[in-house]
Each structure stands twice: as C-alpha cells, then as structure tokens.
Automatic annotation (TrEMBL), chains A, B, C, D:
Transmembrane segments: none annotated. The gene is mtnB. NCBIfam families: PRK09220.1 (NF006672), salvage_mtnB (TIGR03328). This is Methylthioribulose-1-phosphate dehydratase. SMART domains: Aldolase_II.
Length: 205, 205, 205, 205
C-alpha cells in the first residue's frame, strides 16, 4: 500500500481549512487531491466536510480511480481528478470547490466564461500580462462522471495546446490544478476573485 | 433529571460557534437542539447569544416542550423543535438560524421557495442527483408557536411521504434537521448556499 | 481618579474585537463606552483602531464629556455618548460603528428609516413581537458635536416616551445602547442585520 | 547589507495577515513595503502569498528599486513603491492590494473616482471634516512599470500641492501610503470601505 506522506496530508488538510474559511466547501461539497507518484494520487474520501479533514479522511487511488484499499470509498468525482492528472502530466494538485460566484455564473453561462483585462489573469500559465483573456470551459453537470470526463476531453481537444488549468461545472463548482498545492490554491483564489468581480459587475451594471 | 452528556453539549456549543462565524445567529437569535432519548431533547435556553454558549446555556425538555427543571425557561420556539422530533422520529438534531438570504427571500416569497438544478440538492434526502428540485415551505411568522406548528403539520400533510428536512419562517429564519448534528450542519450550509445563490441571481438578473 | 475596573476594560476590548471581525470599525472609526457610575463613563480615546484596543486606549470622562485626566484626549464624538447617558439614565453601554449597510442606507434616507416585519425587531425594547415597526432616526452628519446632539434631543422630544435605542448619522455610522454591553452588542447586531436585509432587498427588487 | 529590523518584518507580516483575512491579497497578489532609511526600503519578494509572509519573504532595495542582494528578485511592482517614497518623502509604509470593489470600480471608471460626503474621508490628510471630497486617480494598467510610474508623476503634477495618498490601477488594485504602517492600514481600510459603499450604492440604485 502506498503511504500518504505527512506533508501531503497536511497540505490537503490545510487547503480544506482555507477554502472552508471562504465558504467554498459548504456541506460535504468539494474534494482535493495531490499526486503521490506516476500512477497514484491521494484524494479525499466521500462524505466528509472538507473544512474538518483528518489524515483518515484521505485515501489512495490509481489514475483510473481504483482504490488501493477496496474497503474505502473515494469521492464520486474522483474520476474528474484522475482525468486531469492523466491529461496534464505536470499536475501535482487538484482542487474542487463550490462558491456563490462560480455557481451563479455557471448556471447563467453558455459553453464558456471569458475573463479579460484582469491583472490576476497572470496567475494562469501562458498569460504574462493582464492584457489578455482566458476562456474558461463551462460543462453541464452530470452524475455520470465518465461521461462528463469524456465531454471535457473533447472540449480540451478543441482548445489547442494549452487549455486553461481549470473549468466550471454548471450549477456545481470549479476544478483547478497546478504543479503543486500552493500553485493550485493561488489559481483557485485568482479564478474566484475574477468570478466575484464579474458577478459584482453584472449587479451594478 | 436527565443529564446532558458532554459530547452533546460540545456539539451544540460548536454548532453555535460555526453559525456565528457566518453571521447566522445575530443578537440572541437562533436556537439548537439534540435528541437525548425517545422523549427528551437538549435545547438552548432563552436569551443567550448562540455564538457564546456554555453548558449552562442548555436545558432538557420533553417532546411536549415541558422543562424537566421548571426553574429554567426554554427558548420560545422550543415548540417548533419538539414538533420536528415528534413528526420525524429519525431526527437527532435541529438547527434554527437567521441569515440575510433566508430573511430577504422568505419576505418576498409566496408559500414556498423552489430550488432546482443545484449540485448541493444532493445534501437533502431522496435527491440522489442535481437534476431535481426541492420545494421548501415558507410559513408566516407568528408569536403563537402552537398555531405556527399546527400550520406546519397541515403543510407537511399535503407534501407526501417525505417533506424536505427544513422550512423557512417569513422574515424570521430557517429550521433544518437531520439524524445527527454533522448532518444538520451540512444541510444548513447547503440550504443557505443555495439561498445565497438565488439572491445573487436575482440581483444580477 | 476613577479607576476603570478590569471587567469593564475587558468588555470594551472584546466589543472591539467582535465589531472589527465584521468590518464595522474600519480605520480608526467607531467608539465605545460603558458607565462607571452616576456621572462617570469609560470611553475609547481618540485615534486608536478599535479592533486592537488595550486598557491604555481607554479613559474616564464625566457626563459633560470632561476628561478626569486633562492630558488625555477623548474621541471627538464623546459628546454623543454623554448625550445618551444623560437622556436615558438606564443606559450602561453605548456602541458606535460604521458599516457598509448603515452608511449606504443613511446616505440615501430621509429623516428616518423604518424597519418592519422582522423577527429581530424583538431585540429592541417595547416590541414584543415581529408584527411591529421601528422608526430609526437618521440625522445629518456634523463636525459640531454639540449641535448634532441638540438636534438629536429635538428629535427625541418629538418621538414620545420611548425613542428607539439607536440612531444613524448620515454617511457616518450608527449609535446603539442598552443597559449593559451584551445588550448593546445584541442590538447592534440586530440593527445591522435588518439594515443588511434592507440593502439586499433594494438590490434584488 | 542593511538588516531588516524584527519590528519592521513583524509589521509587514501582520499587514499581510490582516489584508488576507479580508480577501484583499488573493493568489500571490499585493505587495507591501516600509522605509528603512533615506534610500532603503524593505519590500516583499516576488511570488509569495502575502497572507503567509515570513522574514525570508522580504528583501531590501534602494529607492531606484535596485536589490542590495542581487540574488533576490523583488516584486515586479517595486518601482511603484519606490516612486511613492521618492515623491512623498514623509512616507514610511506603502500597501498594495486587490479587492472586488477596487477592481470592479476601477474597470468602470474614467481617469478618477470621486468620494464625497463620507465620514471616513477624515482618514485622509487635509480633510478635517466629512464635508469634503477626494479625487482618487485611476491609471491604466501597464506591465511597463516605469511607464506607469511616469504617468503617475504627470497626474500628481496636475493635482496641486497635496495629491491624495493613494491611487487605483484599472482592473488591478490600489496603492495607499502613510507615515507609518498603522496609518497606511487605516487609510487602506478607509478607502476600501468607501469603495464598497460606492459599489453597493450602484447596485441598489
């Protein structure tokens, strides 16, 4: 069995505290993962509040989503985490959370949301200046995770060499990733900040 | 006299800290309870700030709302707690709080609020997917608690086998319950999250 | 010299922590006081951030606003605190803070704001039910504190035996009082909650 | 090499905690500095989250922005900090942060934002009463920091003897300064409070 190093467990637990403090993991929503090796990730187990994680709230799965310990049930959305690690091999951490802004905007959006002219776009790769725009895919929610992942693959195929490191699920939440947990948290905060700006702009227009 | 086990007192106190951190128990608003046995619940006493509960802020009543210790005064709304435990025998914890979203939306609503298409609907029983809707009853506020409870019973009678585990009182707040306190907190956060989304959607429409 | 009992200092410092956590004492705004005796109050000194009070941030004045220790400068608005203690002899604590809601609504208001149909109106005296309304005076801001206080006296004279225990200063903030600090904090939270509801209602109308 | 006194490092670290708690330094955004001497400032290094600063997240530059230790990379915006210290010699601390309000309002604004009739204007120098207005410059964002600083100099040249101690960069954030860190924090909170009021006013109009 692959052990989960204490530093990895601590990083996942701390991410939960941070997202919970902002209200981004309500109820038992959200899930987080970090890479342990070429074919192994640590991921949050199903049904726990992500603001109160403990080492035993975590488990190990391979990149097909199969648990090493068959007695443990991973989050239903583990397949979406695995899909990111398989498609973007440089990924070291994946965060999923729910926010008012990403929920409200994704419900109202078409197939993508465009963010333009924000300094914080620099938190995304390949955008060295604010004078740029990012097209964030918005996919329909689906309880069939394999089907949702297949739809994401098709979207990424159509987005050139470097799709943005995140997407929204309609009425559900956001997925964000980076090479390590500090990078994933920074991108999560950057995306949510820009989405809150978009929502506030629509309110005051 | 039925003792209140330390774990029950701690769970009620911790619930108060958590709701207070979100601004959901302003002034001396809100009240919480947990089941102690077939005909006994622990409930918050009247007049205390729910963000600063101590073991002595709690008391024991039977399911008719009668205090075991007649020297203590339970919250005026204890009858609504008892009404939930009587009607839904699997209930282990009941939370009542006030939020901006539940107050503003309940003031503007008709006899119910419908929530549809949110992933977080899965936090409610009987809704295994997001592709569903929940009709949350909204009842008029009334200082005659017995009359308000009778109105709720009539509403529940008309809602089939499984009414949703919560309701709103107009201009007042929400009641939510579950088999245990973690479940009640998860449903409280889920309901408030969806209500905040509804309010934000109306603002930006 | 009248000493400030440790319990009084602690209550004033704790009030500052609580209001600061909600963003209600930005910059060096806000000021607090508690009664020490028939003609003495402890009040915050001028120029300190109210989220970081220490015992030495407090001083003693009489009900005319004169410092016991002439080397210390009380807040410019001490005269408004004294005005409350003189007019309403049962007062034991006065809180003044700035919030987004009380600033925005007071700027847009006429001579008063009416709050009606909120359960939290019960936090104010003389309103045993939610089926009531409270008319909160809104006075123009004025750097001449004596003149502002004279205007308040005139407003109170016209409001019958029991004016509400609070008022707003236009574009500036709110004043709230009660027999003790827990009561003043509860009324502060109740008033701000209802004002936030009013602001959210206008946004979503 | 100029040492960074522990008190300076602590003040910069504490400022980061405070701004982070309000959501004003998302991702790795924001940067802070304090004066060490006539031609030396301590400034945050590039790429760190400002809510988790440590003494080693800081470095020393001269007022032309040159690092004393050439192995360390200062924030890209260090030139804007230096520009403030050169132009306003009484400056002891400079804060830069991003907020929803300053981002949304600066994107929608022309060359300046006017704040009028707020009590909190008294937090700015030269405004002894609320019955005043402050014109806050809004400059276009530019990755060429020297060019942005030149534009600011031209704006200040046209604003008389005492330009306000702060400005906004469009879609990016705010810069605020004062003689010391408590003063800079107070002005930051005052500016953000008034901008939040402006945004809320537009929403509810």
């Amino acid at each position: 069995m692959t052990p989960i190093p204490a530093a990895i467990a601590e990083a996942l637990i701390a991410a939960g505290h941070r997202l919970d403090a902002r209200g981004w993991v309500p109820a038992t929503a959200g899930n987080f993962s970090m890479r342990l090796g070429p074919d192994r990730i640590a991921v949050t187990r199903s049904g726990y509040h992500k603001g109160f994680l403990k080492p035993e709230s975590l488990m190990v799965v391979d990149l097909a989503g199969q648990p090493e310990n068959p007695a443990l049930r991973p989050s239903a959305e583990t397949g979406l985490h695995c899909g990111v690690y398989r498609r973007f091999p440089g990924t070291g951490a994946v965060l999923h959370g729910h926010s008012i802004a990403n929920t409200v905007l994704s419900r109202a959006a078409g197939p993508s949301l465009t963010l333009a002219g924000y300094e914080l776009l620099k938190a995304f790769p390949g955008l060295p200046t604010h004078d740029a725009s990012a097209e964030i895919p918005v996919v329909d929610n689906d309880q069939d995770i394999a089907r949702m992942q297949a739809g994401l693959e098709a979207r990424w195929d159509g987005m050139g060499a470097s799709p943005p490191p995140g997407y929204l699920i309609r009425g559900h939440g956001s997925y964000i990733w980076a090479a390590d947990m500090p990078g994933a948290l920074a991108r999560f905060e950057a995306l949510e900040f820009m989405l809150e700006c978009e929502l506030a702009t629509r309110r005051s227009a």
